[in-house]
Amino acid sequence: MKANILHLLAVSALVALAVAFSACTPGTRIVDYPLIDGANTDNLAVERVEASDTATILHCRGFNRPHFWIRLAKETTLLADGQRFALIGAEGIEPGEMLWMPDSGDSCFTLKFEPLPKDVKKFDLSEGDEQGSWRIYGIDLTGRQREAFPSGLPQSLRQSPKADATDALEYAFSIGESEIRLHVMGYREGMNSPVIYLNNLFKGQQELPVSMDAANATGTLKPTLYGTGRAMVVMDDRTYGDFCIAPGEQVDVYMDPSSIYELVHKLRHPELVKPRKSLWTLGSRYDALNNQPLPEQDLLENLPYYLPTYDTTSDACTDSLVASYQLLRNQLESTGLSPLMRRDYLAGKACEVIRTLDMADRQRIYAYASQHKDIPREKITFRPDPIQPHHFERLITEAGFDLNDPLLLMQFESISLTEVPVDDLNTAKYGLLCYLKKGAKAAYLAERGTLTDSQLQELDGWPNPFYAEMCRRIIAHNQEVTAAGKNRITPTPDVPKEKLFEAIIAPHKGKVILVDFWNTWCGPCRAALRANEPLKSGELADENLVWIYIANETSPMATYLESIPQIKGIHYRLDPEQWAYLTGEKMFNIDGIPSYVVVQKDGRAALRNDLRDHSQLVSTLKEALK
After folding, report:
1. Sign of CA dihedral 444, 446, 449, 455
2. Which whole number is the average pLDDT over 214-223?
3. 60: domain range?
4. What is the model's pTM?
5. What's the average model confidence in pLDDT over 341-351?
6. Number of Cβ atoms within 10 Å of the Cβ of 399
7. pLDDT (tens digit per residue) in 547-595
8. 193 exposed, middle or buried (CB, 10 Å; 0-12, 13-18, 19+)?
9. Cβ atoms within 10 Å of 284's Cβ, excluding its own
10. For strand 250-255 and strand 179-184, is the pairing parallel, antiparallel, or unpaired?
11. In terms of domains, do 325 and 275 share one?
């Protein structure tokens, strides 16, 4: 099917569908916009199913950015009651070939499969079992309608909470192990496992993969929290929601993977789908906040995006951010949101504008570089009118932040509060911000083993004992982990830095080596590690393939030692000079991490950052192994 026809179908899909299916075989089961149990992709939507004695026909839409492509595997099948039903025809797409998106980013096509048995009520669509294959689970053939709540949700969570009990919303200045029991409603074998990203004001972000028990559709985590945390649940690169949790709590979290139905349909057919929550909690002191209903529209979508030009003054930057915050506050007044949700939106926006002001100098330098591409980055000397402490004070005062609202400390971007240049501990002026900057800095130093005794004694003199206790707990934990885990690191060869890489690969002569430059604080690195790990026992299980991981001392030792047992391979941790040489111009000239070097069997080594595209990695290494 030509691109212009695809575009017309994408624009007028409902009309086209009505015409195209007017001549269906008698007795054919037809379901428009069938419900699903879950999916690992939002690039593919099934908009109509026709199930007859001769075939099962799926009318689909493929989504991607304009002029990007999607591809559906030739091996795509339907699965029902333990049987597979083969793909026997297609129109508008050539299975196995790239389908390029038109300007709309939206293409229609039809897939024809062998007929399903008449008694099948649900079926799956699967490209196969390989990493990254698309799967849509539980495509419904009964024509049932969307319910207000998923079937596995407890009755007590099916009503809006009585929400403005502020005594339950204090920030927990305490330390303790919490238990998170994640219930993925409708989860079954074959679905990918979720990841929980736990953000904490003093410990940063922890990435917590969830090991699911398919028998009870539950996974359990027991993280140690240093103060209240805010977590978001991600599965298949889609965020399903977020929740707050306090140290020491046992919380049941209910997640609805079928809500991806809304994601793939609501932009095209908003009249078909009403917003519905995807995540609820039970057992937290923050249930009232976590279980607030979704607003019917995105309250942030109409806010102007702050993007200064390089000659924007610092006063003008501050003015823009004050106006942005005040605009949101005015918009919230006209919504039906509860007072609690309005507070939460405003607290999140306050953290955002503080972070943006803190980054304004860097943003303007970047804007200058973008406008002066003829100047090499290392030779740019432009420096903007700098952000000063009084600009933060203006932002706080003129925007009218409530600095004593504990919700400020519970946001994903609450770490930005530690950037406010508070030089004195004036609680009347700075409220909860007073101790954050020094407290967060102390936790950072404790994490890296560089907090001095005098700094710790200063914390002992503060009114809140939490800060000193936190640092002592961090130090004790790190010492324990370090003592137990140092043998997990391969000793770095004692050679000049110019010979270091040669010495690292020398023991593996004649084999293919993938060298992965990474660090624990790098989100894309962690995502790539998760994606690659199953390959070692799957498609790339080969004794002639060696996996070498190189990090540096910016990865806190305890965090690093806790991470590497989950990464099968050989691990090196370099000092700054060694890292700078290997990643610098004289060696691999790495532009960021993750970065990959492939060493061929004959010892030739080359930087291969095309392997950041995960689809390239398997084929490249298989070719090298031949």
Report:
1. positive
2. 94
3. 3-140
4. 0.85
5. 92
6. 20
7. 999 999 999 898 899 999 989 999 999 999 999 999 998 899 998 999 9
8. middle
9. 23
10. parallel
11. no
Query: Across-strand partners of 545?
Result: 512
**Helix residue spans in 400-548 (DSSP H):** 427-430, 436-447, 453-460, 466-485, 500-505, 523-532
CA–CA distance from 24 to each of 29, 36, 51, 87, 168 (Å)? 9, 23, 10, 20, 58
Report helix, strand or coil for 585.
coil
> Which residues are CB-neighbours of 561 under 8 A, at least 6 positions away?
481, 482, 484, 485, 486, 488, 489
Position with higher pLDDT, 215 vs 425? 215
Note the pLDDT tens digit of each residue in 122-161: 999 999 877 778 999 999 999 888 888 888 999 999 987 7
Structure token pair of residue 122? 């649900």
Tell me if 384 is assigned to some domain.
Answer: yes
Q: Are residues 419 and 340 in the same domain?
A: yes
pLDDT at residue 233, rounded to an integer: 96
- Indicate whether 554 belongs to any domain: yes
CATH (domain of 606): 3.40.30.10
The pLDDT value recorded for residue 236 is 87
Identity of the amino acid at 136: I
Does residue 367 surpass a pLDDT of 80? yes
CB proximity list for 294: less than 8 A, separation 6 or greater: 275, 276, 277
Q: How large is the C-alpha radius of gyration of the chain?
A: 27
Provide the pLDDT confidence category of residue 260 given band limits of 50, 70 and 90.
confident
For residues 76 and 304, the model is more confident at 76
Q: How many domains does the chain have?
A: 4
Joined tokens for residue 608: 């291969």
d(C-alpha 605, C-alpha 512), whole Å: 10
Identify the pLDDT of residue 470: 96
Instruction: Calculate the CA 361 to chain-centre distance.
Output: 27
For the chain, the helix, strand and coil percentages under 3-state DSSP, each to the nearest 5? 35, 25, 40
Query: Could you report the per-residue pLDDT of 494-537, keeping only the tens digit for each?
Result: 999 999 999 999 999 999 999 999 999 998 898 899 888 988 98
- Interhelix angle 314-333/389-399, nearest 10 degrees: 20
In degrees rounded to 5, what are phi and psi of residue 515? -105, 120
The total of other beta-carbon atoms located within 10 Å of residue 177's CB is 12
8 Å CB contact between 617 and 611: yes
Rounded Cα gap, residues 300 and 306, in angstroms? 13
Q: What is the DSSP letter of 295?
A: P
**Same domain flag for 126 and 181:** no
Read off the tokens for 338. Answer: 């509860």
The gap from C-alpha 403 to its chain's centroid, in whole angstroms, comes to 29
Q: Which residues pair with 606 in a beta bridge?
A: 598
Is residue 337 a contact partner of residue 297, using CB atoms and an 8 Å limit? no
Q: 190's torsion region: left (phi>0), alpha (psi -120 to 50) or beta?
A: left
* 270-300 tens-digit pLDDT: 565 666 789 999 999 999 999 998 877 666 6
Using alpha carbons, list the distances in angstroms from residue 143 to 34, 35, 164, 169, 553: 7, 8, 39, 42, 57
The answer as to whether 454 is a domain residue is no
Looking only at the bridges linking them, the beta strands covering 135-140 and 122-126 are antiparallel
In a domain, 466, yes or no: no
293-298-302 Cα angle (round to 5): 155
Cα(543)–Cα(541) distance, rounded to whole angstroms?
7
Same domain, residue pair 136 and 13: yes
Pairing of strands 224-226, 195-200: unpaired
- The token pair that represents 47 in the structure block: 């908009």
Structure tokens at 229: 């945390």
> Within this chain, do residues 70 and 168 fall inside the same structural domain, yes or no?
no
